[in-house]
Design a protein that fits this description.
The chain is mostly helical. Helix content is about 80%, strand content about 0%. It has helices at about 1-35, 40-65, 70-95, 100-125, 135-160, 175-205, 210-220, 225-235, 240-265, 275-295, 300-320; strands at about 95, 295-300. Strands 1-2 form a two-stranded antiparallel ribbon. It is globular.
């Protein structure tokens, strides 16, 4: 009965997270339009934050309650799932064409930041120590890397802004837009609390480690906005949106979803993470880069291979 109740809490929590993020994006986008902010800048900042808001809320709630494994598992699991499963599915639906600019700038940055997290997490082991940690100084480092990404986004938005856009009427008036922002944020906060509490109790009740719950249930649940956005974009042939959503989300996850909670609450010491988790984080970003460079496409067979690697990795998780 307790297990069933906690599953219900998880499902309701995920529903609040996803709906809250959706309402938040609508409200924030409409607010920006009321103030005549560039449509490109809205997409690169507000929408990117909105789809990653569930991960950020879960990480802050988890770290505030002392569930350190939940934080790292949420970030690593979401990044791996975004590339191997979500982009894999998108490529199966339709081969993904990737722009030259994405191959030259955004993909290398995604790989660099993924590698950076691996190095920061393993720096103690690499120095001969026994306990790996993510310290407050590590959090500051990834936040500094995010400022580089943010500078790139602003520069890109300015370049696009030089081309005149058709001015769109805001979806809502300013008052309603701000109300939607508040309601969306409330849904995200309440939903994150329910997810963390439900997942933690479920793991304890079933005798499963927080690492496994975070890498599977929590990572999948918080990545549902990215999954829906990417699959819909792939079906419509909007490959730029499909790839950009995943790359931006992964960079945001590592730099913000991990960086901000660690800077706020201090050092975390995950207790059950294994080398395979770190290897898969970097390997998934590297695989995306390798598949994209020669042809600037992700073909269906490459998408199938990504999904196969995802299944193999999660099989290892469940057996260890």
């Amino acid at each position: 009965m307790d297990i069933l109740l906690n599953i219900v809490v998880l499902v309701v929590g995920f529903a609040l997270l996803i709906k809250g993020a959706d309402i938040f994006v609508d409200g924030a986008s409409s607010t920006a339009q009321n103030f005549k902010v560039s449509k490109m800048l809205i997409g690169l900042t507000i929408v990117a934050f909105g789809t990653s808001a569930p991960e950020l809320a879960v990480s802050i709630s988890a770290l505030a309650s002392g569930s350190t494994d939940m934080v790292l598992g949420n970030v690593m699991g979401s990044c791996i799932l975004n590339i191997l499963l979500i982009l894999g599915i998108a490529a199966l639906i339709r081969p993904i064409k990737i722009k030259s600019n994405t191959v030259k700038k955004e993909l290398p940055l995604c790989l660099l930041i993924s590698t950076l997290l691996a190095v920061l997490f393993l720096d103690v082991s690499l120095a001969g120590g026994t306990v790996n940690q993510i310290t407050r100084s590590d959090g500051i480092v990834v936040l500094l890397f995010f400022t580089v990404f943010l500078y790139y986004l602003i520069t890109l938005a300015r370049q696009k802004g030089e081309k005149k856009e058709k001015e769109e009427k805001p979806k809502f008036k300013l008052g309603k837009s701000l109300l939607f922002v508040a309601l969306g944020m409330a849904g995200i906060i309440v939903g994150s609390e329910m997810v963390v509490n439900g997942a933690t109790i479920l793991a304890t009740t079933m005798g499963i480690s927080e690492r496994v719950i975070a890498l599977t249930v929590v990572a999948f649940g918080t990545s549902l906005p990215e999954l829906v956005t990417t699959v819909v974009a792939a079906r419509r042939g909007e490959q730029d949106l499909a790839v950009g959503n995943i790359i931006g989300s992964n960079i945001f996850n590592i730099c913000i979803v991990l960086g901000i909670p660690v800077v706020l609450f201090g050092t975390i010491t995950p207790s059950s993470f294994q080398m395979v988790d770190v290897i898969m984080l970097v390997a998934s970003a590297a695989l995306l880069f390798v598949f994209s460079v020669p042809t600037r496409r992700i073909m269906r067979w490459e998408g199938a291979l990504m999904i196969a690697l995802f299944v193999a990795y999660y099989s290892v998780i469940m057996l260890t």
